[in-house]
From TrEMBL:
A family per Pfam: FAD_binding_4
Designated name of the protein: FAD-binding protein
Residues covered by the 4Fe-4S ferredoxin-type domain: 604-635
Keywords assigned by UniProt, alphabetized: FAD, Flavoprotein, Iron, Iron-sulfur, Metal-binding, Oxidoreductase
Domain of life: Bacteria
UniProt domain FAD-binding PCMH-type: residue ranges: 46-265
Amino acid sequence: MPATEGALAQSDIAALTGALRTEGFRGGIDHDPASCAAASTDNSVYCIAPSLILSPQDEADCEAMMRCLNRPQFARWPVTARGGGTGTNGQSLNSGIVVDLRRRMNRILEINPEAGWADVEPGVVLDLLNDTLAAHGLFFAPETSTSSRCTIGGMVATDASGKGSRRYGKTADNVIGLSAIIEGRAVNSLAASLPAALEAEVEAACNSGRPHLLSRVPALSRRFSGYDLERARRGPDGFEWWRLFIGAEGTLGLVTRIRLRLLPRPPHRRLLVAAFDGFAAALDSVSALLGHQPLAVECLDEWVARLAGDAGLLLDLPRAVRGADGQAPVFNFIECSGGDAEALNAQVAAIARDLPKLSGFTGLHVASDPEEIARLWTIRSASVGLLARRDDAQRGRVPVSFVEDCVLPPENLSTFVAEFGALMQAEGLRYGIYGHADVGCLHVRPALDIADLNDRVRLGRISDQVFAMVTRLGGIFWGEHGKGVRGQYLAELVGAECFAAFRQIKSAFDPNERFNPGKLITLERGLLGVRSTPFRPMRRDGVLARAYGCNGNALCHSYAASQPMCPSFRVSGQALHSPKGRAEALKLWDGARRSGSLTPLIEASVHAAMETCLGCKACASTCPIQIDIPEMRSHFLEHWHGTRPRRLSDRAMILLERHHRAIGRLRPFLAFGPVAALMSRLAVRLGVNDAPSVSRRGLADLGVEVVTPRQVASRVSRGKLTPNNVLIAPDAFSELFDTDAICDIVDGLRALGFAPAILRLPAGGKAAHASGARAAFLRMATILKGELDRLADCNLPVIACDPSFVTLLREEYRHAGMMPRRKVVSMAEFLLSLPEDALPRLPPDGQRYRVFLHCTERAKGQTSSMEWRALGERLGLNFEIAATGCCGMSGAYGHEARNLTNSRKLFDLSWAPLIEPGATVMATGFSCRCQSRRFAQAKAVHPMRLIADRFAGLPRSDPAKT
């Protein structure tokens, strides 16, 4: 039957869906093509699409699900658990049924601070758990660089570990017990036993295989995991069957509940960032550093350090440490922690004294502030994403993970690095290295082009050679990320006797060989290996090239509400409704279209994924590969609407933007009470809620000159403008709906000594781009570009009123080949570009002024936040940048009735908790101010209003004289 091959027919799916509901299954059932595509990849080079995705509500739902699936007609259908989807070797990729445990089974069930444990469902994200435990002064010790999106269940499945494992061990060292579905019911290892016959069979296999495992596998701090015979049999009278599930990657069954060991959170931490002139010197320093007993020593090689510098991640380091322009130092991150601050300071001082004695040492920075430590650690945690960026110098090759977590005895680490480097040189490849130098676990990523068949062959050849190299040097091929399809090497490592015991255990727990079949241990099914597993489809050209470039790092699945990416995933919990999911959906659509297999079902499911995108652009900058779903969505919608009508609300927005000036002339009429009420009712009929009102004042009513680019160019040519003149550039929506903010900007610039004028500009095409009306967008872009180009030779700053206008010109216009010759800058960019003494400065007043940034600014990472903080320091104002995600408005998204619930949820996630009742909100974006007024009844103004009020009447600097 097809199920034995993994693919399920639609009739099979229909039969199972009915049976599940009859059995009492309450969770989600998804089998549309786009959802299955979204579950077809992880952070590896492989791709296997399931036929069905089940999202159980809780443990009881898992029991109902497995009772149904144990019926004879379904008993051999593949079942694979999936958590955060961050595996690097296809760990959770399979055909058949994927069980999404993160979407709904993500609760912390119980915390017992006194006993030091917590019970969690497998879908709980690591950062969420530790953020919750912080209130108790506790933490779950295993750490990963993907902690913002990896799940506890996934960590258990791979026996994950990361920074700090030298002190705290791996996940297995921090699990007390678990529940698993055995024969259709949940068995809790802390409260019940396995069925007697099953336990006897498994225990006998453990006893027979354990001596052979111990004799074959090196005894390292990052020890062997998966079917852990060593720890399952702790002594002659102790057998802990549940330990076999840790590291087994879901091949033995579904884990539904996990009890975790909690530890006191060290109250004091220090981070030393030590710079070296080369990676070899950094590695050679590790032995000396370990003599000081730090918590961790992490390293980056030259390539990763350069990428971090290019991404602006090194800006928190002093120039002496990060190096001058053109230099490329490498870094060791040395963390120390403890309960005694005095002893900790002495430990740090001793390390600082010894570092200059080490060869190649060039500089040191010590951080003690928790926020600074967290920012600096992002340099290391971002490594996996940074290495995803395409290396254009090597024909589109990009570093990929397939040999990336080898663990070696510390004394053989340098030998491994040298031999690995020689192998890469022989293959003609570049590579990046980062990782856990203190435990000998280095992440090595060769740069390959998976679209190239020769590089696919090369991947298999390198895997074989690195496995042999690591084994010869006394190491283990899989140090912390699990095995996945690299399980093909398992039998060779552990030997025939031990592997036979593994097969006996697999047969006992999974006689139908249905759980994550083809991984690690097989009985009758074929083994999925590094060569036999299907690769991701790749395409390097065309408007969807970025979708194909998605490497599945899943940063867009971050749980933190304060992160800009991705708002639609945050409110849905579905992988499809994230940049990663949408990239896979677009690839599915593109591949089907090019192969002639495109169906209405595929198109409709992809369209559903595009519909939930807010267009916030966070993925265009926050994503390590800058995937830019809004740009690709625009092209998809152009195709979609080629045969289907647009919504009336979309057409209305396009017309509103295009004819904003004509509509603006009707202000008095539109502001008349009955007319305004009629327009509001009409908007509701169009599916638009809380539509903004046309501003009562037009540009001509603001008490400032309004000029066209042609007039400006003429005056410049005649020498009629002064150096303190600046030009304010409002977009169509600011001009129509938000002239109060334009007035605030005018007043603020005047208070700082400038003479502003307002540019009258044509529509930019933002609404047309968002709805896929690309012909209309290009027409409007051409006209606006032409107008801005008139200012190309005018040495006057052009300042955008709204951050989204800057993004439109720099991103959408760039993609369209329409970049204006005259750069339009943000307010913070302009003011910070001036010399230090060009702006007046207030004496400190001890107050903090919270500024909410537009999501297109937040998406720029630290850059925009640092700009506004720096601007405040220049002016004598203490700007505190609110740590928020998207407010939920994002242009027209929040006004559409179909999005109202999610818009409110997003506002409540990160904005509402930071807004006091009746407070004045300073927000840089028009849509953010609208949302704050709508849901918090706040008075919302542009930050330039504060500057205007604080500097009004004070002596002004003359920017023209600086």
